[in-house]
Design a protein that fits this description.
Layout: H1 3-6, H2 39-79, H3 84-89, H4 91-97, H5 110-126, H6 129-137, H7 143-153, H8 159-168, H9 175-182, H10 185-193, H11 209-212, H12 214-229, H13 242-253, H14 265-275, H15 283-290, H16 297-305, H17 313-318, E1 321-324, E2 327-330, H18 338-369, H19 372-383, H20 390-400, H21 406-413, H22 429-452, H23 458-465, H24 470-498, H25 502-507, H26 515-524, H27 529-553
Antiparallel strand pairs: 1-2
Helix pairs in contact: 2-27, 4-5, 5-12, 5-13, 6-7, 8-13, 12-13, 18-19, 18-22, 18-24, 20-22, 22-24, 23-24, 26-27
């Protein structure tokens, strides 16, 4: 066979560039898997399956974090701006008060006081008026007692109208008259079938009655709800509040058009004619009789200012400011405490962190360089505080730091200080720094030790062999490698210190407490949870800010706990 017929590259009948046999065309479709599906689709399906499996594995932990960490923080942030108690407790008053000019020289008009009478009647029955008074008392002292006094007598407002309606027709004293007018047929049927088991059927208004007698229908619905929920009674057996008669008088006087087919239309028409000659009640005067604070324009300006469902007032208070009807202003000088506490918290936490570094660094070095037997013994001493109650350790420092305590007695005995000039180590910042340094020191030692343990001693020997002094070898070779441990320990100690409140509360007195002590006070004592949430949110932002600054300056990747 000649070269012309065989060719040098055709011994197998395969082209050298594609691996295809002669005459075979190159495939144009996608590469397929063993099951016939495109390989790319099969790979994507396998990846999705792996991701779902991984998600199922971490789902319990994810749910746990959401429930115990993310949700509480979100709830705290919401409480710091939430202010719905005013609009929820005084809905009618807030709506009418929206048209009031807060810059006016006079208090609101009769319409606002009439709405307030109805709202306060409901709030007093539900015991919400004291909560509202406490909320507004945060902004202006004295409002809490104003609401308490009003709640005790508000049920008498409108009594004059009740007597006049009953004198006109005794049927107005019968609860069934109001049931006939206002109750819907579905509720009547359900209420008649109620056997006393379980909750009572929710009261429903008759169709269209709210258009004819809007104020009366609204307050009567609240009356029926309170009687059912709070008193567990039947509205058909209870005479309505005086506030219901007040609302009925106002609706009739406003020119309500009574349909002919409406229940008791004849009684309503007769009452509408007679209402023109009723003796009117000065609702505003009744409120001022309860407490003359209702005649104070500033009280109404506070209610008007904080009637919105959300407020920045808590955050302003946390910065020693206040939201007034005239805008944002500084609080009185004797009430500016929070900025001082924030600054003190940051300064003292920094001092505590530096103290832990100074004391913990040589201990970490000893642990890393001593033989294992001595190092283990020393490690037990470092961990020993973890086996003792925090409260016990703090109380022990209170005993040690007293003017007549162990430390002062020892200093007097060795002659360092005079007996009449003992050191003030308790109930101040000094006592807080000393006790918290002792408590947080292990959190600095352990990261330092874990990092120092990984630094080969040969590095120092090599530096000395090249002519470096002990100090130069330490500063230029050893210390830079221990910085990640310092960073990790500093983050732990600083974040723990900035949120401590037990130790400063016991040994800090008035000059050594942190902002966390004030947060605990508002949560457990004053019950001003909104301000506590705002203070906590600001503290969280400060911590995140320091974390961000640390990452920008040193780098969070350089923080190590060993390895």
């Amino acid at each position: 066979m000649t070269d012309a017929t065989r060719g040098p590259d055709n011994l197998t009948g395969v082209t050298p560039d594609t691996g295809l046999k002669l005459g075979q065309s190159e495939p144009t479709g996608p590469m397929l898997a063993a099951d016939g599906t495109p390989l790319k689709t099969s790979l994507n399906r396998a990846l999705r399956k792996q991701k779902r499996r991984a998600l199922f594995l971490i789902a319990p932990l994810l749910v746990f974090i959401l429930v115990t960490f993310i949700y509480p923080i979100g709830e705290m942030l919401f409480r710091s701006v939430e202010n719905q108690i005013v609009s929820d407790t005084l809905p009618r008053t807030v709506r009418v008060l929206a048209d009031w000019d807060a810059e006016a020289t006079d208090i609101p008009g009769p319409a606002v006081f009439s709405a307030l009478a109805k709202d306060m009647m409901v709030a007093a029955e539900e015991k919400n008026h004291t909560r509202l008074g406490s909320r507004l008392n945060y902004e202006a002292s004295g409002i809490s007692s104003l609401f308490r006094k009003t709640g005790r007598g508000v049920d008498d407002i409108g009594e004059g109208y009740t007597e006049q309606f009953v004198a006109l027709d005794p049927a107005w004293e019968d609860p069934q008259t109001f049931i006939d007018i206002f109750a819907g047929p579905r509720w009547l049927e359900a209420n008649a079938a109620y056997d006393g088991e379980g909750p009572r059927p929710t009261f429903r208004l008759a169709a269209g009655v709210g258009d004819v007698l809007p104020q009366t229908a609204s307050i009567y619905r609240d009356f029926a709800r309170v009687v059912q929920v709070e008193d567990d009674n039947n509205p058909a057996e209870e005479q309505p509040w005086n506030a219901v008669y007040l609302a009925l008088y106002e609706d009739l006087q406003a020119g309500a058009v009574i349909p002919a087919d409406m229940a008791h239309a004849d009684k309503l028409n007769a009452a509408q004619v007679a209402a023109a000659s009723f003796t009117t009640t000065d609702v505003q005067a009744d409120f001022v009789a309860f407490d003359d604070g209702w005649a104070d324009r500033d009280v109404w300006r506070v209610i008007h200012t904080y009637s919105a469902p959300y407020t920045s007032g808590y955050f302003l208070n946390a910065a020693d400011l206040q939201l007034t009807p005239d805008g944002v202003a500084w609080r009185p000088e004797n009430e500016r405490v929070y900025v001082t506490l924030f600054v003190r918290t940051l300064i003292m936490s920094t001092f505590i962190t530096l103290s832990c570094i100074v004391l913990g660094y040589p201990i970490g070095w000893l642990l890393a360089n001593l033989p294992s037997r001595q190092a283990n013994l020393l490690m037990i001493l470092v961990l020993l505080p973890f086996w003792t109650s925090l409260l016990v350790r703090t109380s022990a420092w209170k005993v040690l730091l007293q003017d007549q305590g162990v430390i002062n007695d020892l200093l007097v005995w060795i002659g360092v200080v005079a007996d009449d000039n003992r050191l003030a180590l308790i109930n101040n910042a000094t006592g807080t720094i000393i006790s918290m340094t002792h408590i947080l020191l292990p959190f600095m030692i352990l990261p330092l030790y874990s990092v120092m343990k990984t630094i080969p001693p040969s590095y120092l020997r090599a530096a000395k062999s090249l002519g470096a002094t002990n100090w130069t070898a330490f500063w230029r070779v050893y210390f830079p490698q221990s910085v990640p441990g310092i960073g990790a320990g500093s983050i732990l100690v600083f974040i723990l210190a900035i949120g401590y409140y037990i130790t400063p509360e016991i040994v800090g007195g008035t000059k050594g407490v942190f902002i966390s002590n004030r947060i605990a006070y508002h949560i457990s004592t004053s019950l001003n949870w909104g301000l506590a949430a705002a203070l906590g949110a600001i503290l969280l932002v400060i911590v995140l800010g320091f974390y961000w600054a640390y990452d920008r300056i040193i780098g969070i990747d350089n923080v190590k706990l060993g390895g």
